[in-house]
Design brief:
This protein has about 475 residues and is of the alpha/beta class. It folds into three domains: about 230 residues, Phosphoenolpyruvate-binding domains (TIM Barrel, Alpha-Beta Barrel); about 80 residues, PK beta-barrel domain-like (M1 Pyruvate Kinase, Domain 3, Beta Barrel); about 120 residues, Pyruvate Kinase, Chain: A, domain 1. It has 17 helices and 21 strands. The strands form four sheets. An eight-stranded parallel barrel has the order 1-2-3-12-13-14-15-16, surrounded by eight helices. The protein has a six-stranded mixed sheet with strand order 6-5-9-8-7-11, covered by helices on one side. Strand 7 and strand 8 form a beta hairpin. The longest helix is centred in the first third of the chain and has 18 residues. The chain starts with 7 loop residues before the first strand and ends in a 12-residue tail after the last strand.
Amino acid sequence: MRHLRKVKIVATLGPASSTYDVIKDLHQAGADVFRLNMSHGSHAEIRDRHRIIREIEKELASPIAILADLQGPKLRVGTFANGQETLIEGASFQLDLDPREGDVDRVCLPHREIFSALEVGAHLLVNDGKIRLLVEEFGTDFAKCKVIAGGVISNHKGVNVPDVVLPLAALSQKDLKDLEFVCELGVDWLALSFVQRPSDVTEAKALIAGRAAVISKIEKPAAIENFDEILTVSDGIMVARGDLGVELPVQNVPPMQKRMVRKCRAAAKPVIVATQMLESMIDSPMPTRAEVSDVATAIYEGSDAIMLSAESAAGSFPVEAVTTMHNVAVEVEGDPTYTEIMNSSRRRERITVPDGIVSAAREIAENADIKAICCFTQSGTTALLTARERPSVPILALSPLVDTGRRLALTWGTHCVLVEAVHRFKMAVMAAVTVARDQGYGTADDKIVVTAGVPFNVEGTTNILRVASCDERLLSDTDSE
């Protein structure tokens, strides 16, 4: 399927979107990538959704990416004797390792690692930051705090620790089991939660062993501080604004989002903007104007993908939410201002031969009457570099590898088509012309740009470019290789 826009849409599956018909409707409405949230759903439910996606992919002959999102360590308080308590601003409240039920003065926090990393003046945020505690004294098994912002605290509410780097691995025991399960199942992308340092990513990649590409979720202040190093070792980035907006002042998140998107674009690595994009559509068939503006902002920034969470997983209007995102994207990308922003924010330096080839392909396509850039890609690198240029014409990524085609479903402006392996450049040109015509990108009167690497099927060898006519009769048998 060809979605007539460049930004990609990630839709989370859940109770509201677990049947064949609904998942197919989501894909046809515009979902390019389906997210399996490992925080919810049994392995049997995840397996069933995976099976349905692959059946739809086969029926529609359209590569679909599957993203498995690991839960990560979850820090939660224990239980209260009364089920809940109300903390008053200015009062004292203690968190400790005592397993007894809590009261208005204390509660168990069964995470020894937190206490070992604390310092006086650190903040502890409970229930998505609704309750804020200031550490005044601590030991190896307790933290005496002052209530800065009070409210109701109840059983098993989550705790965020924004001011310190916690000595916790990004992969919990549950994550390790889930990681192996989804890799054996066959997913294309694996999202890693609770990333604080680049070693969190490299350790996960060692376990994944190439079976999936890795997306680092940026949701901790430590990840912001180490972002450049994390980006280097990651295959993609998710700007997870939920926890990020809890652990940092909310006004800090928009400029951070913009900087991270630009750095990902410069590195030619996909970036997803996520969390609460169309939150009101969980219960309403129409979004708020502010939500539409938020989605539009992410698109204007040049994000590769925008994501729906509860809107498509548990909401009453999952297909409508995807349709809304699609319609906003089409409108934004048709705005002349969008093209101006893409042009002005493009990376200028060119270091390698592949950099120069894809830059030249974009310039030729935009300065001549070219309908598409067709790139042959084994690993996906050529398509990623081409997408980094943010050309105004479509990108056709041709690959003999289904895994590459699926992963590229997350990449901006890229429509991937599976083709037979080629061994000569003339074969590549003929295949590109055939695909361009069959997929509706050009007629016999049109031209396309074809890029490839010689020798073929070797990663990182993009070194050749040709402008080709879509009239196959003009491809002479005497053409040079």
